[in-house]
Sequence to fold (501 residues):
Amino acid sequence: MSEPTSMDVLVSLSKRRGFVFQSSEIYGGTGSCWDYGPLGVELKNNIKRVWWRDFVQTRADMVGIDASILMHPTVWKASGHLDHFTDPMVDCRECKHRFRADHVDALPWVHYCPATKGNKFTIPAGEPCGHCGQRRTLCPQCGKGELTAPRQFNLMFKTFMGPVEEDAAVTYLRPETAQAMFVNFDNVLQSMRLKLPFGIAQAGRSFRNEITPGNFIFRTREFEQMEIEYFVNPNDRVDGRPADEYWHDRWIEDCMAWFRRYGLSADNLRLREHERDELAHYAKRTVDIEYRFPIGWSELMGIANRTDFDLKQHAKWSGKSLTYFDDERKEHVVPFVVEPAAGVDRALLAFMADAYREEEVRGEKRVVLKFHPELAPIKVAVLPLLKKRDDIVRTAHTIRADLAKHWRVVYDDTAAIGRLYRRQDEVGTPYCVTVDVQTVGDSERGEAGDFRVTIRDRDSMEQARVPIAELGAVFRELLDGAPWSQAARRYPAPAAKASGP
Ligand code: ATP
Fold:
């Protein structure tokens, strides 16, 4: 098992190549807020697009919604968020640093060791001091102050609806997208004439006033989620099992397969079953998909069986019936719900970490992001071999404009070709097109062009000479998933690799 890519490497690459910037950086940055740059926004949109296509568009049992972030405040009373959406918080009495009580033991800790005349050590999380054998009791940050007893802290962001800041106007930024699917259950059911089982999906922003945000985009106060509420008839059985249990397992398998399909290696993924005492108050069973992030194994998404809790709660608080009429049994039932809930930002971090490679090519380091072509922010880069030749540059611009009708395609002539290839490797562009003298010919010497260009595969660095007229068809094939070996077989390799790999 190879070591995970370090967070510093990802943060620095993200900034350097326009994936993620610190929010409001010129003012010193905003704690735990990040901005997606030109390549980050493409990557993020691609993740959301393939998720939507695979889990909504192509499935007959799924529909989507896009609900508002500000909801009726009673939603949060009914859902339990006002009373239960809290984390235990502790403060250091000395340095005033604040921690999530349940995260303190997972931090390395500062220790002034009595066995070594008070020398200062930083000891790995959870381990005792190697000299005196003591375990941590004080603040892990300063090593001096006592920690206060835990206090519950509600994670919802409060705001006011309308111009008057009074109690009656208090509302909240949603801490999850899920509740909109429950409160719209009947609207969707009636308008779309759905039959159980069916699911409602939504991708959008959520806000949590996390006590200890951090680790780049892993834990932020504003983030995006992709959530599904999959409603099943609790009286149905599938393969001899209660329908909710069957569908819970199906969603766990489907989500695991989805992350693997787009590039996360099996070695870096695992399932974690929630223990009875950590289950949320509404859940019958919850399983997390964990990823081996640079910070260690952590939650990438959660898949919970929320039973009929949410629909019953909203029916109680709204006074509206939120049931489904079971035609066969001639009875109203409250569906059970299975919730696959993923974070877009954590998915992006995982896809980036897994795609990152440092390779040696002819004695030089090559950094490459081996993104799945569907996720790659740029699909094709068109590069002129000589930027002083007008006909080469013109042809390259025309090719870019043609291909850009279908995909994100860029033109770059700001360095020599070897350098341009490396730049595209570093941002994960799966294919490059090089326009050279052979393509356009040399009129002064009376040589005609062959109207072919060199296309280059990011992963194998192999090249093929493809007629310009066939580029669209070849890239369609490749970007639809055909292997390079199959698509390039029809075309000759360039005579000499003047351009280098
Ligand atoms: P954690 O235990 O890490 O706080 P959670 O169990 O509270 O996460 P859920 O409520 O299950 O998270 O939310 C579903 C998904 O939303 C998570 O698996 C994660 O990918 C994402 N998510 C939750 N909180 C954050 C956050 N503060 N920053 C970024 N993504 C988040």
